[in-house]
């Protein structure tokens, strides 16, 4: 990402940097051919975290909807994959279908949850996640409370299995990034900006908030469902308490707050940082989590626009043309 | 004795500079009218004095000390009361509760629930009525009475007669007599120039955030006021 | 008879939930924020009392005598240091910070006390186990009645404070219009800090009752927050007495669910909550109402 500094003119610079980033994203598909499988698996984990961060940012950063219950979709996506494979669907197809099913779940829940505002929405989504976790734990076919393994992938050689999972995860990640990009570039982008700045003023200016929130909510459901299904494909085993655990929301909050809430690039930065921190400090257990919480509070209070704002203010151009007034020159 | 001194005060709303380097003093017991077109910065100026709007430049001194960094509720305790535009009564409180909540931490002085209700006899029968069920004039009277409960030395009244019926305006200005008699210093923002000039002893006209006129009302010609108000000479009808 | 018993036990349990909920309700009523760390603060209070009982040998109710003032101060400081700043940051910031706070408290407890499950029931003595036998199948536990009575007292006391005292009037004024309140001399931030202090103290009370009644560990907080929130929503946001009914409805739903199958207990509560949300009642409760009174 550093080679773009040489370019001066903002329009062209942004264009070049976007092309470079897309190229970089596509180049990432080649990773399994050049790196060890544990790297591939790590990158898969990073991609699932990135998906979650981007989706949480879609809700909180663009829609003003702070959710403490996105783990509902993460868990639902994972368990839907289990359910589908138990009914003789190929595992990777099941992952895709499960992500779509999570989107459908979001469609069903939207009328109930989107009427809640602020903290009510936060806890309301959480209750839904808890209820789903309890329901899943009741079902012995899904392994009950003790957990369940994903079958159907053990016929594939481990190296290839990890590569396939990685490719699918990367594909989903790029798809979600593209969807959010389109969302910001089209007319909805201006509306999103308006809502983010002042929801009531936006409503009074005729911005139709509900359809937009609905769209964001369903997109986040779909994305988190995919992240959950892919987490399962990566780890092959899940338990309801952990896949439906509120710690996912804590992670998402951390990644988005530290990276930069309401920005396109922030959550990506936050996910990478969180991934590294996880790698370095997770061994410290509770202390690590205390640190995460404290850092998140500090960012919310003292640097509410996150680390990306520091870079963004200094860069002479935007890395990606997501600003709604931006017109690439040329 | 100068009670309030405003020196080079500047205040902004985001990028918009509403008040640009305003300087004036107010003597104890004076009634000062602040006039000017919409957007001239009158309300913003009043709010910066009350502590409800941040100062972006300059100094305000009151009773011999600077107000910089003094939060609004402390200014109230030092005797600066503000009657906001639109009255802003607590809608779920009765008239009496509106008065009592302001009186709780007040300076000591002549005003308490009994004396305020004596001064505003019209409010006496309305004591138990919810503020949201009062007429505009009753609301304004309650808002001024509420401000008096804090025993102010300096009373800032924003948009005294805006949105009131002519009769209500009469009633509200009847209150001014009470204020004058009690020796309270008053700065009032008023759109009705005739009212402003007849009530106040001195007038300040703001034009685009600056003082365009600062004069005694006595002997002030209509021409001078209009020029300051609009910023140019109006052609006299031939 | 089984069902009658379930309802009675549910009503008693509702007292506990109402106690958890009233602090949440108070903070929402006055400051319009939902404190996502409320449950963890309650558990922190329970741990504080547990430590006091272990180190001094006094019963948990006596331990409340020093614990409640400590938690009051903690709540006050919490507002002055963290919440006051987050309130200035826009509507999302308090949610983000209190959620961060929840993570910090939970893991700090985990670090300080290990993940073991604890109970204050043993230290509480007879009151934790005794009961009045009404009929063969129905009994009223001393503790259940004590908790319900405490809840009624606390809610009634708060109601009285809000309605009848000058401080309560300031709190209601601040809830209606904080800006104007400061302009008539009410120090809104100090009102907020005291509301937070009261909320934290009631949460502590609830946490201790939870500990005496059953068990708790470092990660018990989120569940209690959820129950408290459900009670608040079922009872009607911003209404203190409604919170008591809400707690009872939730308690009865859980005990009836448990009578059918112990696994259904909590699920039944969630279900009732979601039904209330979906109903027109829920819609009117949660509409775009900006003004509200905390009582």
UniProtKB/TrEMBL annotation, chain A:
Keywords: Cell membrane, Membrane, Transmembrane, Transmembrane helix. The chain crosses the membrane at residues 16-35, 47-69, 89-114, 164-184, 214-238, 250-277, 284-303. Pfam families: BPD_transp_2. The keyword Membrane applies. It is found in: Cell membrane. It is a multi-pass membrane protein. This is Branched-chain amino acid ABC transporter permease. It comes from the Bacteria.
TrEMBL record, chain B:
Keywords: Amino-acid transport, ATP-binding, Nucleotide-binding, Transport. This is ABC transporter ATP-binding protein. One of its GO terms (molecular function) is ATP binding. It comes from the Bacteria. It comes from Paractinoplanes globisporus. Residues 4-233 form the ABC transporter domain. Belongs to the ABC transporter superfamily. InterPro entries: AAA+_ATPase, ABC_transporter-like_ATP-bd, BCAA_Transport_ATP-bd_LivF, P-loop_NTPase.
Automatic annotation (TrEMBL), chain C:
InterPro entries: ABC_transp_permease (IPR001851), BCAA_transport_permease (IPR052157). It holds the Pfam family BPD_transp_2. The chain crosses the membrane at residues 6-26, 58-78, 140-162, 191-212, 224-244, 264-286. It is found in: Cell membrane. The keyword Cell membrane applies. The keyword Metal-binding does not apply. Keywords: Amino-acid transport, Cell membrane, Membrane, Transmembrane, Transmembrane helix, Transport. Its main location: membrane. It is a multi-pass membrane protein. Belongs to the binding-protein-dependent transport system permease family. LivHM subfamily. This is Branched-chain amino acid ABC transporter permease.
């Amino acid at each position: 990402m550093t080679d773009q500094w040489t370019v001066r003119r903002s329009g062209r610079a942004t264009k070049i940097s976007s092309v470079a980033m897309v190229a970089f994203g596509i180049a990432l598909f080649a990773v399994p051919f050049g790196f060890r499988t544990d790297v591939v698996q790590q990158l898969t984990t990073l991609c699932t975290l990135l998906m979650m961060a981007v989706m949480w940012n879609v809700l909180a950063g663009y829609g003003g909807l702070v959710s403490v219950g996105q783990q509902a979709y993460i868990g639902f996506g994972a368990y839907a994959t289990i359910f589908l494979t138990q009914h003789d669907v190929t595992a990777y197809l099941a992952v895709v279908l499960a992500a779509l099913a999570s989107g459908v779940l979001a469609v069903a829940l939207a009328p109930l949850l989107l009427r809640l505002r602020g903290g009510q929405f936060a806890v309301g989504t959480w209750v839904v996640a808890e209820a789903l976790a309890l329901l899943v734990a009741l079902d012995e076919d899904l392994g009950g409370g003790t957990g369940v393994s994903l079958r159907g992938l053990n016929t594939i050689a481990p190296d290839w299995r990890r590569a396939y999972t990685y490719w699918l995860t990367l594909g989903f990640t790029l798809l979600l990034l593209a969807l959010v990009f389109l969302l910001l570039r089209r007319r909805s982008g201006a509306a999103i900006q308006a809502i983010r700045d002042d929801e009531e003023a936006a409503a009074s200016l005729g911005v139709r908030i509900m359809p937009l929130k609905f769209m964001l909510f369903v997109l986040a459901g779909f994305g988190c469902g995919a992240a959950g299904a892919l987490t399962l494909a990566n780890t092959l085993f899940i338990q309801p308490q952990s896949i439906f655990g509120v710690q996912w929301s804590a992670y998402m909050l951390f990644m988005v707050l530290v990276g930069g809430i309401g920005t396109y690039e922030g959550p990506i930065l936050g996910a990478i940082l969180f991934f590294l921190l996880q790698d370095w400090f997770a061994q410290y257990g509770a202390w690590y989590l205390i640190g995460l919480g404290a850092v998140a509070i500090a960012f919310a209070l003292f640097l509410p626009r996150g680390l990306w704002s520091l870079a963004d203010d200094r860069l002479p151009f935007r890395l990606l043309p997501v600003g709604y007034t931006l017109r690439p020159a040329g | 004795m100068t009670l309030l001194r405003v020196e080079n005060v500047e205040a902004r709303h985001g990028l918009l500079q509403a008040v640009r380097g305003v300087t004036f003093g107010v003597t104890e017991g004076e009634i000062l009218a602040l006039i000017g077109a919409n957007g001239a910065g009158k309300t913003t100026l009043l709010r910066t004095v009350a502590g409800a709007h941040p100062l972006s430049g300059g100094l305000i001194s009151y009773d011999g000390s600077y107000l910089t960094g003094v939060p609004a509720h402390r200014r109230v305790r030092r005797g600066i009361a503000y009657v906001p535009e639109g009255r802003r009564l607590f809608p779920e409180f009765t008239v009496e509760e509106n008065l009592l909540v302001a009186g709780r931490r007040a300076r000591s002085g002549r005003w308490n629930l009994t004396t305020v209700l004596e001064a505003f006899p019209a409010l006496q029968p309305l004591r138990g009525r919810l503020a949201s069920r009062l007429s505009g004039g009753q609301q304004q009277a309650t808002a001024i009475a509420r401000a008096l409960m804090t025993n102010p030395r300096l009373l800032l009244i924003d948009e005294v007669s805006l949105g009131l019926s002519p009769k209500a305006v009469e009633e509200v200005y009847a209150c001014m007599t009470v204020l004058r008699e009690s020796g309270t210093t008053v700065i009032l923002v008023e759109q009705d120039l005739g009212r402003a000039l007849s009530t106040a002893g001195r007038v300040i006209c703001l034009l685009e955030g600056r003082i365009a006129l600062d004069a005694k009302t006595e002997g002030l010609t209509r021409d001078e006021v209009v020029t300051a108000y609009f910023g140019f000479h109006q052609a006299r009808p031939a | 008879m089984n069902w009658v018993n379930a309802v009675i036990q549910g009503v008693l349990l509702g007292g506990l939930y109402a106690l958890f909920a009233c602090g949440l309700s108070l903070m929402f009523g006055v400051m319009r924020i939902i404190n996502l760390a409320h449950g963890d603060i309650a558990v922190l209070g329970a741990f504080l009392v547990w430590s006091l009982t272990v180190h001094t040998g006094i019963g948990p109710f006596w331990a409340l005598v020093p614990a409640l003032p400590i938690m009051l101060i903690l709540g006050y400081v919490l507002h002055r240091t963290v919440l006051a700043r987050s309130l200035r940051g826009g509507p999302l910031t308090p949610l983000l910070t209190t959620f961060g706070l929840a993570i910090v408290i939970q893991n700090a407890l985990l670090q300080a006390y290990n993940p073991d499950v604890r109970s204050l029931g043993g230290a509480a003595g007879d009151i934790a186990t005794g009961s009045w036998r009404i009929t063969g199948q129905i009994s009223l536990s001393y503790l259940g009645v004590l908790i319900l009575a405490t809840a009624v007292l606390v809610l009634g006391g708060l109601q009285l404070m809000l309605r009848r005292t000058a401080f309560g009037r300031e709190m209601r004024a601040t809830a209606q219009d904080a800006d104007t309140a400061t302009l008539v001399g009410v120090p809104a931030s100090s009102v907020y800090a005291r509301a937070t202090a009261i909320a934290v103290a009631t949460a502590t009370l609830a946490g201790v009752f939870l500990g005496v009644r059953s068990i708790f560990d470092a990660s018990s907080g989120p569940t209690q927050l959820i129950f408290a929130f459900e009670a608040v929503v079922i009872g009607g946001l911003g209404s203190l007495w409604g919170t008591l009914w809400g707690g009872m409805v939730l308690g009865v739903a859980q005990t009836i669910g448990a009578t059918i199958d112990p696994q259904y207990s909590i699920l039944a509560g969630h279900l009732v909550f979601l039904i209330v949300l979906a109903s027109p009642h829920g819609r009117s409760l949660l509409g775009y109402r900006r003004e509200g009174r905390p009582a």
